[in-house]
Specification:
- The chain is of the alpha+beta class.
- The chain has 3 domains: 130 residues, no CATH class; 82 residues, Orthogonal Bundle (Helix Hairpins), CATH 1.10.287; 131 residues, Histidine kinase-like ATPase, C-terminal domain (Heat Shock Protein 90, 2-Layer Sandwich), CATH 3.30.565.
- Helix content is 53%, strand content 16%.
- The protein is built from 8 helices and 13 strands.
- A 5-stranded antiparallel β-sheet has the order 1-2-5-4-3, with helices on one face.
- Strand 11 and strand 12 form a beta hairpin.
- The longest helix is centred in the middle third of the chain and has 49 residues.
- It starts with 6 loop residues before the first helix and ends with a strand.
- The C terminus is likely disordered.
Amino acid sequence: MNKLQPFSRKIAKIFVTIAACVLAFYSLVVELTVHHAENLNSQTRLSVIAPYHLSLFTESTSEQQIQISPINSIYSHYHLLPKHVKVLIEPTWTGMTHHTVDDSELEFSIYATTNSQGRIVYAIEETTNIEWDDYDFLIVEIMLLFFGIILFIISAGFIINMAKRIAAPFSDLANQLHNEQDESLSPIKVDGELSLELNKTLQGVNHFRASIKQALEREQSFTRYVSHELRTPMTVIKGSLSLLRRHDDSDVSKQVARIEHAIDDMEQLTQTFLLLARDKDNAQAQCEVSESFIDNIHQNLSKRITSNNVDYQMQLQQPVRLDAEPVLVCSLISNLLLNAINCSINGNVTLMVSQRNISVIDNGVGLNKKSRGYEGFGIGLNVVQDICKKYQWQFSLVNNETQGCTATVTFEPTTEEY
C-alpha cells in the first residue's frame, strides 16, 4: 500500500519535477543555440566577404587558390578544393552551407557562386580554430548548471511555500475532522484563503454534520421516550395482572399468562433497543454463555417449540465468556433460535456453542421461501445484525446443502475461555 502524503507535498512534487524538466530542457536549448549561433555567424560573415574576394577571378582565366586570411581561402575551380570539401558538395552546387567532419573535428563554411564568366568559384572559411572548444563549452555548461541549480532552489522554495499556503485550509479541515472531540457537531471553520472547491466541500461537510446532529437528537429523544414513557404503562399492566391472578377462572389465568409472557418479551426488546442505542457500552459488562444461561432462553421459547413441533437440541462444548451485555447476548441467541423455530415447523433445530462462534442449524424452508404464518425473517435478524455490528462480530446466514439454513455468529479473537 502506498504511504499517504500531505496535499502540499504532492503539489510541491509535481511542480518541482516540472521545474527540473523545464530547467534541463532550456539547458539543452541554450547549448544547441550556441552551436547554431556560431555556425550562423560563420555563414553570415562568409556571405559578406566572399563576393568581394571572389571578384578577383572575374577577369582571370587561370586556375588559382588564394589564401585571403588564416581562415579564409578562395578557389577558382572545383578540382582545387580540398578532398574533405569535394566529398560533401557536387561540382554544379552553388549556395551557402556549413559542415563538420566528425572524424577529423574539422568545421567549415562553404560559399559557392557563379561569376560573370559563368564559372563556379568557391570561398571556404575554416572555423575550427575560432569556435569554442570542449573546454570552453564545459565552462559554459558548468556556469549554466550552477546558475540553473540556484534558480531551481529558489523556484523549489517558492513552489513549496506556495503549495503549503494553498494546502493549508485543506490541512486545517482534515486535522479538525481527524482530531475532533467536539460531540456537539458544531459547524467547522478553517483559516486561510478559501478556494471555490474547498468552500463547497466545507459547506457540504457542515450540511452533513447538521443532518447527523438532528438525527442523533431524534434518536436521543426516542431513547428517552422509550426509557420513560414506555416502561411506565408496562409497570401499570404488571400491577393490573397481579390483581387478575386472584381470580380462579382458568380462562382468565390463561390470558394473564399470555399477557405476562408478552410483557416480558416487550421488556427484553425495549432493553435491547436501549442498549443498542447507547454510544458507549459498559466496559465492565461480561456475559457467560453457560448451560443455565441457554436453559433460561430455552424455557422462554418452550411454548413456541412445542406448538411448532420442533425437535430442539443444544451442543455446548464448554462455557464461553464474552465482553458484552448479557441482555444483548440473550436477545441474539433468542432471535436466532426463534427465527429457526418459526421456519422449521415439524423439523429440527440445533444450537451449537463453541469458543469461536454460535451456530443455529435448522432443516426448515431455507432462505428462498416464507415460513407458514410469517412474513420474511422478521425484525429478529435485524436485531442480531445490529448486535454483531456493536461488538464487531461476524454474522452469516446461508442455505444448507440439503435443507434449511445455518446462522452463525463468529466472535472476535479477544473472546476469553472460561
